[in-house]
Design goal:
single chain; about 325 residues; alpha+beta; Double-stranded beta-helix; nine-stranded mixed beta sheet; about 20% helix
């Protein structure tokens, strides 16, 4: 299939591209891109203090541009973590993610030094979090408490670029597809595994059965910019609407293979008090479990997103 992108627009002379778009100017924060595809390290900010309007606006501009923004040396209390997170929207809990210290607005990703890799819900492929919800998360705000000396990074893939580099014919096809995502059976499947192979999941939650399964577009449109991205991944995937499971897996495997390509990626090394915000709508991510005999403990908040817009929804809204 062809690989001619539908974007980006050619920038003005002397303006480099960053994450597929012309690089903006920043005056209140420092911004160092992690790769040409996505991700940037942000400096000059202490997130434990209230942020002024101009600094907040530049952080939001960096978030929209780079999709993954990284802050180092942010020693925050849980309340400070949540306060910063609320700049991005309303916090939400997740039915499957264990809470941190019993706080329903915070989750944890934890693997002790003596635990196997599979204790953490780490999917084999790049994925988005909780796509089965009616309003999947807008973004994740995650901070490291403990991490391995080496390894344990998180990698990200820019889903805009995956879509934009598909052939015109395949873009037309996926523009019209919908996906059934379901989280209804994850606890049953987990209980069927031997104890040493089970994931660490939240035991109880207040979500209804209807909230654990949704139909969403395979291509997601940004509600403000109209830019399109692939919103198809293996996590909680059942099938494309109107397709068999076998047909669905064949197409999904191809789309997933495109997200694996290194030229869509950035990779973030965790250090204690590193904080990452990533756009769960327009990136895919995965943990890299290339370490043993060390503790990795990350805490996070989840910001509620909007109901995903597909190309047809965007046209009607416009």
């Amino acid at each position: 299939m062809g690989t001619q992108p539908v974007s980006p627009l050619r920038p003005a002379p002397g303006v480099p591209l960053a994450a597929g778009l012309p690089m903006p100017a920043f005056r209140r924060i420092t911004v160092e891109p992690l790769s040409g595809a996505c991700g940037a390290e942000i400096g000059g900010v202490d997130l434990s203090r209230p942020l002024d309007t101009e600094t907040t606006a530049e952080i939001m501009a960096a978030f929209q541009q780079f999709l993954v923004i990284v802050f180092r040396n942010q020693d925050l209390t849980p309340d400070q973590h949540k306060s910063f997170s609320r700049l991005f929207g309303e916090l939400t809990e997740l039915p499957q993610a264990p809470t941190y210290n019993g706080d329903r607005e915070m989750q944890e990703v934890r693997r002790e030094a003596d635990e196997p890799v599979n204790v953490v819900p780490s999917f084999e492929h790049f994925h988005t979090d909780s796509p089965f919800l009616p309003q999947p998360p807008k973004c994740i705000v995650m901070r490291a408490l403990d991490c391995p000396q080496w390894g344990g990074d998180t990698a990200f893939s820019n889903a805009y670029l995956v879509y934009e580099n598909l052939s015109e014919g395949l873009r037309t096809l996926v523009d019209g597809l919908q996906i059934i995502y379901s989280g209804k059976d994850i606890w049953r499947k987990n209980e069927s595994l031997p104890p040493e192979k089970r994931l660490r999941l939240r035991e109880t939650h207040g979500f209804s059965e209807d909230q654990l399964e949704s139909i969403h577009p395979a291509v997601r449109v940004h509600p403000e910019t109209g830019r399109r991205a692939i919103f198809a991944n293996t996590a909680y995937f059942k099938r494309f609407v109107g397709w068999t499971e076998e047909e669905s897996r064949a197409l999904l495997d191809y789309l997933q293979s495109q997200a694996q390509q290194l030229h869509y990626h950035c990779r973030v090394k965790w250090q204690r008090d590193t904080l990452i915000v990533w756009d769960n709508r327009f990136t895919l991510h995965r943990g890299v479990h290339d370490f043993i005999y060390e503790r990795r403990h990350l805490i996070r908040t989840t910001v509620m997103g909007e109901r995903p817009l597909g190309p047809a929804d965007w046209k009607r809204a416009g």
